[in-house]
Amino acid sequence: MQAMEREKEKQRVSESTPNRTGKIQVMVRVYDTVSQYEADAQRLIPQGWRIEQQSQGGGHVNIGRTTTGAVLTGGLSLLFGGSRTKDKLTVTWRRDPE
Predict the structure, then answer these.
(1) Strands across the sheet with 88-95, in order?
(2) pTM of structure
């Protein structure tokens, strides 16, 4: 667990220090909520990061819940769609060298 925390701290430092490597820096982040993304964007954009690409993947359909709901409601729940997991937002960040 401590190694994981050290890695996160190391990542925070490298994303906040100027890019003097002479190379383009790229990182991919997956966000569970829009508010997590917004907080990251407010911190990263002033540090020279910009969004290269973003996508929102649809959550997968939970067959067990969908089937149970359909059985219990006589199929009515199928009119409202299947039971899905929450969508995630994937953002590719890019920072050019200074």
Answers:
(1) 25-31, 88-95, 50-57
(2) 0.60
